[in-house]
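Sequence and structure are kept together here, with a separate record for every protein. A complete record is shown below as an example:
=====
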Amino acid sequence: MATAKKAPTQTAVAAPAAKRTPNAAFMKAMTPSAALAAIVGAAALPRTEVTKKVWEYIKKHDLQDSANRRNINADAKLKPIFKKDQVSMFEMTKLINEHLS
């Protein structure tokens, strides 16, 4: 009994992705509150840069929880922003946005 060979399946060839233009709302310079300025500086920055600078601060001071790396432990400078001892990285951006105007 001869077994029929299956034709190789064709994989979808993805078209090259078009360059995305950044959303103007994310690129608008925002002024940080006094508590946030202690971490990122007082200059007006886009939201994306503020988030990058907060992550630099977190990594520099080793504030990620060792057991669950998605959680951030607040130190004296982050506590006024987070309003609690520990937040998840997903909750962090929402709390940071409350300190931008």
